[in-house]
Design a protein that fits this description.
This protein has 244 residues and is of the alpha/beta class. It is built from eleven helices and seven strands. A five-stranded mixed sheet has the order 2-1-3-5-4. The chain has a two-stranded antiparallel sheet with strand order 6-7. A hairpin with a 4-residue loop joins strand 4 and strand 5. The longest helix has 19 residues. The two termini are 30 Å apart.
Length: 244
Amino acid sequence: MSRHVLLIFEGEKTELNYYQSLKKAFFDQDETAVCVCVFGNDVYELSEELLEDPDLDVVELLRESKTQPKNQEALAGISRHKFTEIYLFFDLEYNDDKFSFETLKTFINLYSDETDLGYAFINYPMVEATRHVKTPESFLSSQIGVSSCRGKIYKRLSAEEGTKELSDARKITHSDWIQLACINHKKACLITNEEHETLTSQLSILLSQKRKVQTSEIIFILAGLPLFLVHHFGLSLINSLSTE
């Protein structure tokens, strides 16, 4: 059966720039049909809408969005059941008025199967974590204080401290993405104390991040899109790093 994948992003500009280079690297020559939609708000707003109405499906919510008319165009003629996999990508938004680890836990538990309701990935603290890599080695232990997680502050920090190769989201190469997948997967395993040969769940990551915040007011920097690549293509993807 052919794969029809729906990717749902929190925002339109930065996230879609990352998707463009990811698409070129992995999906342009792939038989997988990929549809992209934007929610246009944070995970807490989405959680509020979905939890208020248990029968509300995220695909139909996107299709009917008044603020994101491009969703209707992207989903035109595609039924909900056409999608074999659904993935959602949102930022932690630690300083949001509605931030709550419990809300995130409920959301992640609900969206934990891409073949059912969907599988949610969280960026810690934001999607710009994708570029916040000084070196692959230092990334494995990189952290940030919760006071520096605010939008403008973190955007500046990630731009200043990240490597030049990752500064333009649209120009990240295939080998760069594999490197990112490798180090984000390895770091996820380190912070959750899980084996490197297993896929780390988003719930395990969230609980580890929660403990770190509660004890030190620090967050481990971690990006959702690289972890999606490992989840979607399998651990064999990062094994190919040595051949790049």
